[in-house]
Design goal:
single chain, 229 residues, Ubiquitin-like (UB roll), two-stranded antiparallel ribbon, 24% helix
Amino acid sequence: MLNFLLNGLEVQVENGTTILEAARFYGFPIPTLCFMDGLSPYGACRLCVVEVADASGRTKLVSSCTYPVEEGLRVRTASARVVHARKMVIELLLATCPQSKIIQDLASAHNVRQQRFKQEYEDCILCGLCVRMCEEQMMAKAIGFANRGERRTIGTPFDLKSEECRTCGGCIYVCPACQLRCSFTNTESAICGGCANLAPPCIESHVFDDMMCYMEPCVACEIDKVINK
């Protein structure tokens, strides 16, 4: 067993446990996009970043889905640095694929109200979910990555029709850009915000030092709902 600090709590996990698995086990939610149970972790979207500190006190941001817990590690899942990084990632995702309802929901849930990057309307965010689904669950390997950098794409080998593809639809099922489309119509903005809680009751009245509230659902919001019924 490994002992480490998770948001200030002394906890134990088995060897080989990732930070994401440990956080979920102990009730600390971490948002994910390219991660899915049953598929190998990939760490592409960087939405699941957390802040870790080693014995010397040096800190860094790591993807929690791929980072294994180490003895004596100190992890914070919602520090100010982490929250800032996640919002930046969501802005980049919105710049790439604003029509994805999953990404719009993430923006609403994490209070993202602006998108400062060049707007694109791509049909792929290169999360790799479809590639891993095809290879690991469908055992087909009909699709994969091609090229690198800004030329990186997903498709069949040599862009030819794949004889391995069984048109099972697994790739579409897991794709965050294909599953559901956001119905917002404001083409001048990448952010809909229609599903956002614009006035959470604890946003200004409570300060958690260098940690944002990690409760999901928010306890203050749930109490407010009961009082106002």
